[in-house]
Amino acid sequence: MSKILDEDMNFDKIFWIATTAMRLNRSHPYVARDKIWRNQFIAILLLSLFCFIFLLYSILFHDIQCGLFADASKNAIMAIVAFTITYKYYILLRYQDSVTELIRIVDDDYELAKEFCEEEQRIVLHYSKRGVKVCQYWFISACSTSAIFPLKALMLMGKSYMAGEFQLVPLFELTYPWILEDYKTVPIIFITLFGLALFFDVYATSMYVGFDPIVPIFMLHLCGQLDILNLRISKMFSDTEHSDEAVRKNLTEIILKLQDVYKFIQVIKTNFTVLYEFMMKTTTFLLPLTAFQITESLRNGEINIEFIGFFTGVILHFYIPCYYSDLLMETGEKFRLAIYSCGWEKHSDMRTLPTILFMLTRAIKPVVISTIFCAICLDTFAQMCREAYSIFNLMNAAWA
């Protein structure tokens, strides 16, 4: 038998980009929740809380009161990001056991796949490589977007130094409470605030790189498992050498694996339904806020590079899960058609017919991840974009 898969193939090794990012921010489910982790987690939480409070203060007590709606939208974007990454961390903590179990199931499937035929191994390898691409997309998008903020500040400070008029440029422009506002240009205070903003920048990047690819990876893995079952059931009745007993045995194995797939999907729904509802709502506001920030800069004759990259990341934030959930739904539909057209009507053993009927009945229900109110698919993404565009038009009409 040809060996397509590596002997040491496992989740952490294949998707090392995401798992490394989660280990960096200490959210990985395999990280021991001991005293050291608790101290690290409290420090991360407190620093994130300070950033969130400063953003809210700037929005409520300066930007809106002074009519600076462009600045308010900019700070609102970061406040939403701060709340979102904290919520994602909470999800990983609350469902740590479930996420660990899902990763273990993926590892077990990889181990079993090493004994599959070459065609089935290629299916597993194909979907694992697509999962790696999701990690790479997020790594490039998140890192390039977050790197622009400190690089821009450092370049502006370097430019002012070369011109002989050195000025301190913050990583992110905020209006702080009066105690800090009066002294924010003092070197030690400036360095502290710059370091706090830089920490938030790196922490947010690690959460997006580590967390966001996880569910799409799981969905791609399920697509691969359904494709394997599709292949097996298509061949089951076409091979005339199989006895009735062998057909029933193969059919039983397919059903057992199919039940595992449905359980896997149900666990994902239980863990992430509320999160994806939240993501859909926040993306609906992040898109128009970011677009408004970009258009306001263009009106002032500037090019807001950091928020152009951020706009792309916001689209990816909800588009990627919608795309792969849509792919999962399409793969489930292909499997349903494969059951119907597998050649069961030519089989002489009538005992298999009730089983085929049961599988067809169950397969009518779409295999898809959902939010609280709707399925996550490309139609949902399109609807979200329409709502975001309506909000953007309202913002332009009111504040532009």
On the 0-100 scale, what is the average pLDDT? 87
H/E element string? Answer: HHHHHHHHHHHHH
Strand content: under 5%
The gross shape turns out to be elongated
What's the structural domain tally? 1
Q: What are the low-pLDDT stretches, counting only 5+ consecutive residues below 50? A: none
Main structural class: mainly alpha
Helix content: over 70%
Tally the beta strands: 0
Report, as a whole number of angstroms, the end-to-end distance.
66 Å
Radius of gyration: 25 Å
Main sheet overview: none
Task: Output the number of helix runs.
Answer: 13
Membrane topology: Multi-pass membrane protein
Protein name: Odorant receptor
Pfam families: 7tm_6
Subcellular location: Cell membrane
